[in-house]
Amino acid sequence: MASKRGKQTVRDMILSMLVITAVAGVVYIFIPHDDKADPIKAVDYRVELATARRAAPYPVAAPAGLPEGWKPTSVSYEGHNGAGWHLGFLDPDKRYVAVEQSTTPAKKYVPEVSRDARNTGRTREVSGRDWEIWNGPKYDALVLHAEGVTTVVTGSAPADRLAEMAAALKTAAPSAAPSAS
């Protein structure tokens, strides 16, 4: 009797699996899905940019006038531990480009955000400013030093795309603390 019950249990399990597979197949066929849809959603970074520009101790950089096809994908500002600003993009060819800024010393900061890129000792002029060229195993970077802040344009995109982003960067001076009246 026990062996008959065991065979019924196995048979019931197989029948249940067949029913579940059939239902899943029907759902897949009749529920619309777009295999060509881009899974990466664009972010609106305007609020975070305004907040960072009020809070940061340096002029926060963000692109203005990038050509069609650039997609902002990530944004963050951390007011402590170096006051770090991050703005990530996909270029028109779907390669990653990020704008990173911080008051952390460049020797520590640049390898961190560029995934171990190293200074080549060369520079590239972009919009009248000399940016250091850093090369790395994963990301390359353009690095600009200003008083109290390091700006890094880094990513998997080729050097010309990094330079395109660097050329588009505009800054706003940090807001002055409100005066007591």
Structure description:
The chain has 181 residues and is of the alpha+beta class. It has four helices and nine strands. The chain has a seven-stranded antiparallel beta sheet, with helices on both faces. It has a two-stranded antiparallel ribbon with strand order 1-9. A hairpin with a 5-residue loop joins strand 2 and strand 3. The radius of gyration is 26 Å and the shape is elongated. The C terminus is likely disordered.
How many H/I helical runs?
4
Major sheet: arrangement of strands: 2-3-4-8-7-6-5
Unreliable segments of 5+ consecutive residues: 176-181
Topology pattern, helix = H, strand = E: HHEEEEHEEEEHE
**β-sheet strand percentage:** 25-35%
C-alpha Rg (nearest Å): 26 Å
Shape descriptor reads elongated
Provide a brief overview of the structure:
The chain is of the alpha+beta class and about 180 residues long.
Describe the secondary-structure layout:
Layout: H1 2-30, H2 46-55, E1 60-63, E2 71-78, E3 84-90, E4 96-102, H3 106-113, E5 118-126, E6 129-135, E7 140-146, E8 149-155, H4 159-168, E9 169-172
Antiparallel strand pairs: 1-9, 2-3, 3-4, 4-8, 5-6, 6-7, 7-8
